[in-house]
Write a structure and sequence with these properties.
Length: 502
């Protein structure tokens, strides 16, 4: 099955149901199907190769996703927040391609060899053209569905390859076809170049749920849109959820129409999810863990898991609120040690996953999977009940005097301090120990002292985990999808340490 067939099925089953946009002026499934067909016919006449998308969220995005699928061409959304030089270099790597570009971004990417640039407004107009809608598209045998470039935190971004079979497997195994009620609507605030943005389009269409796109996230506009559009389903990263809760408390808004809210993409502070459960007891919360290379979610902590963890006096059950739940049906998951040996429950190692939705492939590179098993580069462990706990990226592990130290473990302890609003723990070079532990704190209220925080850590954890370097800032650096930019902090702190040493 290919992605365009998901839309064809939905348009046949419920042609007049709203698929996109606001309740007052939405786009039906039949209309989205017509737009995708017309868009495909027009794109075919513009040039060959991948279909690139460079722009903000909106109705043009799903039309372009399915148009590319109908043509059997890879869909490649790019990060419009990247510096111009980086953006042009990424765009050149998609050649030959046709790039749909927001009108006000045209000057940033003009003249890239092998790339035909078309404006978003021209594509949208073509999607409404009667002649293009009547076009007969050639039969295709599609393979690559989506190319998603990684963030490039450790070098030049890699292009993750997601084939139609991977995405279709994920959608069909996690969503019941047209199972949504007619009044259901999903608010999508993650950008188009994130796997969650792609999967939201595919699962929303297959499930029959109206999709409302936000061009850009702010907590005020998110709450306002959710209330106005009677949003029933949404996904947020942890930093976004905390800011949304702040706005809700100020406005006295409880979003009574909201039924389900998923979160992922980073560690969720326990205090934030507990606060969310108090403010919205009517909402089913889901913690979803996944990667671009796995076509999105591979494990979930479901609504009942949340309720059980909050209510339980058993510490083994209570701590599961900090887990990412259990693997989805049809997926296998293992924790392996440095030598590749499978580790028992309670022991931390690298998370490996296997299943039909797992791609584990980068364009132009050797397939990463071995016998179908994909190494995630995430450090984690399983408890006796099969619940997965993610400690962070293996690259983030601090090696001090030969001891592996998990930043997440220290961060969890520091977040429990009443004076800590946000925290990041990283390793910086040290001549004696190899690395030393450094903590960057965004205070909440009066700023605590380093001595006070060090004593707090020592009261919970072994002494070797106590940060030796402390820095206080008004806020920590995050990217637009809510991921903490540890690399930025590490480079900054290391540079300062070198300056002091000199």
């Amino acid at each position: 099955m290919h992605t365009a067939l998901l839309l064809e099925m939905a348009a046949d089953a419920f042609p007049e149901r709203l698929a996109l946009g606001e309740r007052a002026a939405g786009v039906t499934f039949a209309e989205l199907q017509a737009r995708a067909t017309a868009g495909a016919a027009w794109l075919a006449a513009q040039g060959e190769g991948s279909v690139v998308f460079l722009g903000l969220n909106g109705p043009a995005l799903p039309a372009a996703v399915f148009a590319a699928g109908k043509l059997g061409r890879p869909f490649a959304p790019l990060n419009y927040r990247a510096p111009d030089d980086d953006l042009r270099r990424l765009l050149a790597r998609t050649a030959p391609s046709v790039a749909i570009v927001d009108d006000d971004m045209m000057l940033r990417v003009a003249g890239v060899e092998g790339v035909t640039i078309v404006t978003r407004s021209a594509f949208e107009a073509a999607c409404l053209d009667a002649g293009h809608r009547a076009a007969e598209l050639a039969e295709t045998d599609p393979d690559i569905a989506v190319l998603l470039f990684t963030s490039g935190t450790t070098g030049e971004p890699k292009a993750a390859v997601l084939r139609h079979r991977h995405l279709a497997s994920y959608v069909i195994s996690t969503v019941e076809f047209m199972d949504a009620e007619e009044d259901e609507a999903a608010l999508v605030s993650v950008p188009p170049y994130h796997i969650a943005g792609i999967s939201a389009v595919l699962t929303g269409v297959y499930g029959g749920r109206r999709i409302v796109h936000m061009p850009a996230f702010t907590p005020d506009s998110w709450v306002e849109t959710a209330a106005r559009e009677a949003i029933t389903h949404a996904m947020l990263v942890p930093t976004m959820l905390g800011r949304v809760l702040d706005v809700m408390e100020v406005k006295g808004e409880r979003l009574p129409q909201m039924r389900a809210l998923s979160y992922g993409g980073g560690r969720m502070p326990r205090a934030v999810i507990e606060r969310a459960l108090r403010l919205m007891p009517h909402v089913a919360f889901v913690n979803a863990y996944g990667l671009t290379e796995t076509s999105s979610t591979i494990s979930v902590l479901g609504p009942q898991d949340h309720r059980d963890a909050i209510a339980s006096s058993d510490p083994q059950v209570s701590r599961r609120l900090a887990s990412v739940g259990r693997p989805l049906p049809g997926l296998e998951l293992e924790i392996r040690g440095p030598e590749g040996d499978v580790l028992p429950p309670g022991e931390a190692g690298e998370v490996y996953v296997r299943g039909e939705q797992v791609a584990g492939e980068y364009l132009g590179r050797k397939l990463l999977t071995e016998d179908g098993w994909f190494p995630t580069n995430d450090s984690g462990w399983l408890d006796a009940g099969g619940y997965l706990f993610i400690e962070g990226r293996l690259d983030d592990v601090i090696v001090r005097g030969g001891e592996n130290i998990s930043p997440g473990e220290i961060e969890d302890v520091l977040r429990a301090h009443p004076g800590v609003g946000d925290v990041a723990v990283v390793g910086i070079p040290d001549d004696e120990w190899g690395e030393r532990v450094a903590a960057v704190i965004a205070p909440k209220g009066p700023e605590p002292t380093a001595q006070e925080l060090a004593a707090w850590v020592q009261s919970w954890l072994r002494s070797t985990t106590t940060p030796e370097t402390w820095e206080f800032r008004t806020e920590l650096p995050y990217n637009e999808t809510g991921k903490l930019l540890r690399r930025v902090l590490k480079e900054d702190l290391a540079a300062r340490a070198r300056t002091v040493a000199a």
